[in-house]
Amino acid sequence: MRTYRQYCSIAKALDVVGDRWTLLIIRELLVRGPARYTDIREGVPGIATNLLAERLRELIREGLVRRRDTPPPVAATVFELTERGRELEPVLLALGRWGAPYMYESPGQEDQFRSRWLAWPAAMLLTDGEPDAPLVTVELSAGDEPVVFEISGGRIQTRPSDGSEPDAWLRGTPQMLLGVLSGRLDLATARSEGLEFGGDERVIRRMQPVAA
């Protein structure tokens, strides 16, 4: 691991997490929770397998990630964040907030996308507009593995889809989904432009923009 050799807290932090791909690996573990090596590699498209292994070794050595064997019948080796690693969540949220304006541009031809990455805009942009109402779910998909938003108690949390029927669902391009989530695109306009929708429209309206 390279070092800036500067007695500065920012430099010290970058010594640990400043290498390319490192924060994206942490993003995947924050969004997914404990994950197998193959799951992490799928969620960080473009990384070479040997480089991913190297980055994971470095994160384990620094105490940000731990490796754990799960018991039968689904025996597997998973990687998960330690408490120290989870302390990076507000750092990534701040980076995501700063980078959000770039998301409103058209993606490049080689840009890849995963529906679960919408967890970050949801955490930054949305809140539960009816905190006293029962829990409802919204499933979003951009053509890959869908992600579910759980809306309850004033909060919106995300998880992978488990195949159960949501209260509402949205399917479309990443730009359309982000437009609806951010309030830049109303649902009717998005549907006229090709967004697919099903379920209770009131559930969608319950996702309210966070006050500035």
Can you tag this structure with a few keywords?
Arc Repressor Mutant, subunit A, 212 residues, single chain, alpha+beta, Nonspecific Lipid-transfer Protein, Chain A, 22% strand, five-stranded mixed β-sheet, three-stranded antiparallel β-sheet, 2 domains
In words, what does this structure look like?
The chain is an alpha+beta fold and 212 residues long. It has 2 domains: 79 residues, Winged helix-like DNA-binding domain superfamily/Winged helix DNA-binding domain (Arc Repressor Mutant, subunit A); 103 residues, 2-Layer Sandwich (Nonspecific Lipid-transfer Protein, Chain A), CATH 3.30.1050.10. The chain is 41% helix and 22% strand. It contains 10 helices and 10 strands. Strands 7-6-5-8-9 form a 5-stranded mixed beta sheet. A hairpin with a 2-residue loop joins strand 6 and strand 7. The chain is globular. The N and C termini lie far apart (39 Å). 25% of the residues are buried. The model has no long low-confidence stretch (mean pLDDT 90).
Listing every helix as H and every strand as E from the N terminus to the C terminus, the arrangement reads: HHEHHEEHHHEEEEEHHEHE
| Strands side by side in the biggest sheet | 7-6-5-8-9
CATH topology of the largest domain: Nonspecific Lipid-transfer Protein, Chain A
The fourth-level CATH homologous superfamily of the largest domain is: SCP2 sterol-binding domain
Structural domain tally = 2
Helical run tally = 10
Number of E-type strands: 10
Specify the biggest β-sheet.
5 strands, mixed
Terminal CA distance: 39 Å
Structural class: alpha+beta
